[in-house]
Design a protein that fits this description.
InterPro entries: OGF_rcpt, OGFr. Keywords: Receptor. By secondary structure, the chain is mostly helical. It has helices at about 20-30, 30-50, 65-75, 80-95, 95-115, 120-130, 135-150, 160-165; strands spanning about 50-55, 60-65. It contains eight helices and two strands; from the N terminus they run ααββαααααα.
Length: about 170
């Protein structure tokens, strides 16, 4: 049967791949081997995108040595954004919400602060941000994006009055 590297409970682009069930997700989470493989697959994809996982426990990330070349690929080929969204959703399904938060913040920093990934900015704001399961963490990231978005008056991903009061 078709294999998915980052399976979800929803249909993707591969019509032959079956969505995961809640029982399958729980079985995966109980298997140390499956979870180790999942982490290795995540690291492999991060390297492909020019990103390094520097702390497996916290999910902290940094640019890899080949980041400039890999970021060029990310900027040119928007299909990567679909894959990143899928990875983010899968991280949430598999109990790696802390990985989600670091990956989304990484992309927000690269798109809004460092401006190295201009063609990823819309996906980061429209899709990546809203894969975050924790409402609190999602609010923190929306606020972070709002702080760095230019022009701030054009920010449409949260109510400005609430963002002004956010602590």
């Amino acid at each position: 049967f078709p294999f998915r590297l980052f399976p979800l409970r929803e249909h993707g682009m591969n019509w032959r791949a079956k969505p995961l069930t809640c029982q399958e997700i729980q079985a995966f989470k109980r298997s140390k081997e499956v979870m180790q493989r999942f982490t290795r697959a995540y690291q492999l994809m991060l390297r492909f995108y020019g990103i390094s996982l520097i702390n497996e426990k916290t999910g902290e990330l940094k640019r890899a040595e080949n980041w400039a070349e890999r970021f060029q690929n990310l900027n040119w080929f928007s299909h990567n954004n679909l894959r990143i969204t899928r990875i983010l959703k899968c991280l949430g399904e598999m109990g790696y919400e802390h990985y989600q938060v670091h990956l989304v913040k990484f992309f927000l920093t690269e798109t809004l602060v460092k401006e190295t990934l201009p063609n990823v900015k819309r996906s980061a704001l429209d899709y990546f941000l809203f894969t975050i399961r924790s409402k609190e963490k999602r609010r923190e990231l929306v606020h972070y994006a709002w702080q760095h978005f230019k022009p701030r008056g054009s920010f449409v991903w949260g109510p400005h009055d609430k963002l002004l009061r956010y602590r």
